[in-house]
Amino acid sequence: MKQFSLSTPQEGFIDITASVRNFVRRSQIKQGICQIFIPHTTAGLTINENADPDVVADMLAALKEMVPRLPYRHGEGNSPAHVKSSLMGCSLAVLVEDNNLVLGTWQGIYFCEFDGPRQRKVFVQVMEA
Questions:
Q1: Sign of CA dihedral 67, 70, 73, 79
Q2: DSSP-assigned beta bridge partners for residue 66
Q3: Roughly what angle, to the nearest 10 degrees, separates helices 79-88 and 53-66?
Q4: Rounded to whole angstroms, how far apart are CA atoms 69 and 72?
Q5: What is the distance between the alpha carbons of residues 77 and 87, in angstroms, rounded to a whole number?
Q6: Global model pTM greater than 0.85
């Protein structure tokens, strides 16, 4: 298992596809699965379009509408970030074929920050099938 760190903005999606792809290539595994995991409760992971930046803006706007400011009981004031994190999830599995990630033409892997700025960790494990 490998890991890398990110410095994140207050809120936003960071395209981590290239970093994950580099771990896969260095693994020299021809066919298998790449597991990506983050140990954070106010951030998430997703796969979505990485060609048009408006998609990320739309995703953030939609999440903001889906998770309103309520009188949450959690004392830190970041409950919306916890809800968004649960909606996105903290792990992804991506197939590996010919030592490369199996992603669609427009797909990228995103780290989703909902309570930054922070220093975050991303764990990557590539397993042979």
A1: positive
A2: none
A3: 120
A4: 8
A5: 18
A6: yes
Q: Which amino acid is at 51?
A: A
As to burial, measured by CB atoms within 10 angstroms (0-12 exposed, 13-18 middle, 19+ buried), residue 34 is buried
How many angstroms separate the CA atoms of 29 and 113, rounded? 30
DSSP assigned state of 76: T
Selection from 11, 53, 22, 10 nearest residue 122 by Cα: 22
Return d(Cα 128, Cα 83) in angstroms, integer: 34
Question: Per the structure block, which two tokens stand in for 119?
Answer: 């220093």
- Note down pLDDT in tens along the chain; length 129 residues: 999 999 999 999 999 999 999 999 999 999 999 999 999 999 999 999 999 999 999 999 999 999 988 899 998 889 999 999 999 999 999 999 999 999 999 999 999 999 999 999 999 999 998
Residue ranges per domain, the chain? 2-128
**CA-wise closest residue to 46 among 125, 127, 128, 114:** 114
Round to whole Å and give the CA distance between 80 and 42: 8
Q: What CATH number belongs to 2-128? A: 2.60.120.460
Structure tokens at 125: 């494990």
